[in-house]
Amino acid sequence: MDDRVHPEVRRTATEIDTMETRGAATIADSAARALRTQATESDAADAEAFRAELRAAARALYETRPTAVSLPNALRYVLRGMSSTTVEGLRQNVVESADEFCARLERAQADLGEVGANRLRDGDTIMTHCHSTDALACVEAAVEQGKHIEAVVKETRPRNQGHITARRLDELGVPVTLIVDSAARRYLNDVDHVLVGADAVAADGSVVNKIGTSGLAVNARDRGTPIMVAAQTLKLHPGTMTGHTVDIEMRDTAEVVDDETLAELGNPTVKNPAFDVTPPRYVDAIVTERGQFPPESIVILMRELFGEGTSEPWAEPEARAEP
């Protein structure tokens, strides 16, 4: 890692890489705060050195999860605020942009929760997959409105993120039934909604989320159970408007099986994709802090927020992608 990168940025990058810090909103918040620290602690001699230092810090963060969407969206927001021509001015630019981003992020989840709660009725049972703070915000808002909500929670192998969801729902007073992933279809008739988050939403309304989401969505559609995706606008992938595809991260096979067991099995090839893509035809609504949208309409919101494309302000000037 670049020597100019502050230790706090290094720590944040490591925690994102190892999934100690997880969840798109949490990752984005951590990244913005890390850049803030880089700026406040910088001893750069001039404005160009400061800019280069911030780009290096942003690259260190970006490279931990190059397939994520909220992370680069957070980096873009903070770096694009650097308009001054002096070190102190640039430092203030970054601090203000990072603070504004984190404040908007905090409000966004609460606003999203209120929108999502309107789709949940008193007495509803939801089914969840993986762990999503956006999805939980919808449940929390519904509970605060006095609605009784119950949940069927998929454990979500191989890292069992469903256990985190189960604990959080229990804290909210929501009765939880924990099931193995392969039992989802059996219990879909017992639920009123499938409620999931998203790591990314493409311009055509496709949803990139934890592996297993697409299979759950297909089964839910077959059973007639509506599927709601809770996703802050920071999950929207502006690059998909200009033809970029969403890369699917492959995780370490050790998450699935250890070396000793692998050898006992005859050393088969192990695949551990982190995400899959759910086509928009299986999604009933995408809920954001800006309102709820049918998946085919999400591109309208995307154009409003990002224009027709995006860039990579963390890249060195000679290597930057065209907007």
From TrEMBL:
Binding-site residues, substrate: R22, G23, A24, A25, R65, N209, K210, K235
Mention any additional remark.
Reaction proceeds via a cis-phosphoenolate intermediate.
Keyword Cell cycle listed? The answer is no
User: Which keywords appear in this protein's UniProt record, sorted alphabetically?
Assistant: Carbohydrate metabolism, Isomerase
- Residues of the active site are C130 (proton acceptor), D199 (proton donor)
Q: Which GO terms describe its molecular function?
A: ribose 1,5-bisphosphate isomerase activity; S-methyl-5-thioribose-1-phosphate isomerase activity
Catalytic activity, reaction form: alpha-D-ribose 1,5-bisphosphate = D-ribulose 1,5-bisphosphate
State the similarity comment.
Belongs to the eIF-2B alpha/beta/delta subunits family. R15P isomerase subfamily.
In terms of InterPro entries, this protein maps to:
IF-2B-related, IF_2B-like_C, Initiation_fac_2B_a/b/d, M1Pi_N, NagB/RpiA_transferase-like, R15Pi
Biological function: Catalyzes the isomerization of ribose 1,5-bisphosphate (R15P) to ribulose 1,5-bisphosphate (RuBP).
Q: What is this protein called in UniProt?
A: Ribose 1,5-bisphosphate isomerase
Query: Which Pfam families does the record match to this protein?
Result: IF-2B
Which leading EC class covers this enzyme? Answer: isomerase
State which Enzyme Commission number(s) the record gives.
Answer: 5.3.1.29
Q: Name one GO biological process term.
A: L-methionine salvage from methylthioadenosine
